[in-house]
Amino acid sequence: LGVLGSTLFRGAARGSFADTLSTYRSEPDGAHGLYLLAEESGLSVGRVQQSLEVLAAGQNLALLGVEFGEGSPGAGALARRFGLADAGVALDDDEEEAVDEAGRELHRGLNRLKSSRVSKDEREKLLEHVRGGATVVYAAWGSGADPFLDALGVKRTPADAALELRTLVPSQPTPFTVGVERVEARVQAWLELPLDAVPLLVDDRFDEVAAALVPYGQGQAVVLGAPELAMNRAFGKADNAQFWLAALGAASATGPLAFDEFHHGFTSDRSIAEFAKKYGLHFAAAQLLLGLALWAAALRRFGRPLPPPEDVRLGSTDALYATSRLYREGKHFAFAAGLIANGAAVDLAPAAGLPSKASPKEIAAGLRARGRDGAANALLEAAREAPGAKSDADVLRVARASAQARAAVTVRWPTARPNPNSQPERNAAEAGARPRLRPGRTEPPHSPQRKAS
Predict the structure, then answer these.
(1) pTM of the predicted model, to two decimals?
(2) Distance (Å, whole) CA 238 – CA 241
(3) Which tens digit of pLDDT belongs to each residue from 342-394?
(4) Of 60-69, 104-113, 168-177, 290-299, where does mean pLDDT reach its minimum?
(5) pLDDT at position 305, please?
């Protein structure tokens, strides 16, 4: 709890919650100053908080400290990030680590879990985007294998970690180094370039390349082996700020420039329009139709009705038994029979295409018009017998007729095979006229069966 609380408080600190080289981070190793510098200088800059598989046409990108890989870090890399290597966690030597030679971590706080590497599909989309004429400014982190640089034909050689600060000078006049005499920064890796690449910054003593312009298709990539150049603490040194003004100005000459924050752990919700842009409008429409179908299917339940809970069933049985006793003691046979007949008419009204307020004769006529003569005859019989009911037997006949009318229009679910020795008519009538009683309870004292016995 103490470690978790400390991590949450540190992660919520103002300006320090984001990753290293994130444009949201105001700490010395962040890149918030670079974003503000470009924004205040009038350059067209923004942020990308979605996958690189969805790229706008004509948009240029700035990738600062972004990792390229085939997937997310494995258990060994996560164990190294959280310092669990001494706890007996197995580590793989071939897993790339997000820590440079000096031990400076790329991911901070809870972003160690939220940030992700650039996937293979994203890398292919990015390369296709560059071939189409876009410009990418890539500040590579570390000195290990990099699939994106391999596609560009650029190799990296680790720099000497003992040399903390290097002086870099322009190798030749270019639009990316206008007004720059020298820059000072710590170099992580020296670059080995293809034949068509143009060196931008080289070491003033060893003539090693630290930044270069690499053509690729119709576009180009500005590769930096010194990511510290983009950090907030580096802007007050030499001509570092002027270098970024010239480089970002040349990179955004053909379109707006966006800093990638998706792979630093910042994501935004995708809309249907973005989904359609990525996969096609037909897939977006199919997804919408599938959602509507699932919603419509969720509005109804398929199969036989579920039995009510035991307490609800017993309570309803007791209420029905008490009501029937009041009707029987008060000799309200006609009233009870009328309720049964009217209830059957209300239930059959939708089957006849009429409102529930229609009379039984109108409902019967509607049922006959739809070819349901049996239900119409049973409903008329119940309505005719109800006013003259004077005994339990009369109420039983009305209930039997109402049950037959309902059965004629209701879907009959398969039930158990009936007992051949039983009396179907009597059982159906009793089931429609009498409520189910509690186990062990005898028949009501005034029921016809009790009187007959």
Answers:
(1) 0.54
(2) 8
(3) 999 999 998 888 898 888 889 999 989 988 888 899 999 999 888 988 888 89
(4) 104-113
(5) 77
Burial of 413 (0-12, 13-18, 19+ CB in 10 A): exposed
- Candidates 40, 46, 42; CA nearest to 61 is 46
The confidence score (pLDDT) of residue 16 equals 59
Lowest mean pLDDT segment, chosen from 7-16, 290-299, 322-331: 7-16
pLDDT in tens, 163-189: 778 889 998 889 999 999 999 988 888
What is the 3-state secondary structure of the chain?
CHHHHHHHHHHCCCCCCCCCCCCCCCCCCCCHHHHHHHHHCCCCEEEECCCCCCCCCCCEEEEECCCECCCCCCHHHHHHHCCCHHHCCCCCCCCCCCECCCCCECCCCCHHHHCCCECHHHHHHHHHHHHCCCEEEEECCCCCCCHHHHHHCCEEEECCCCCCCEEEEECCCCHHHCCCCCEEECCCEEEECCCCCEEEEEECCCCCEEEEEEEECCEEEEEECCHHHHCHHHCCCCCHHHHHHHHHHHHCCCCCEEEECHHHCCCCCCCHHHHHHHHCHHHHHHHHHHHHHHHHHHCCCCCCCCCCCHHHHHHHHHHHHHHHHHHHHCCCHHHHHHHHHHHHHHHHHHHHCCCCCCCHHHHHHHHHHCCCHHHHHHHHHHHHHCCCCCCHHHHHHHHHHHHHHHHHHCCCCCCCCCCCCCCHHHHHHHHHHCCCCCCCCCCCCCCHHHHHC
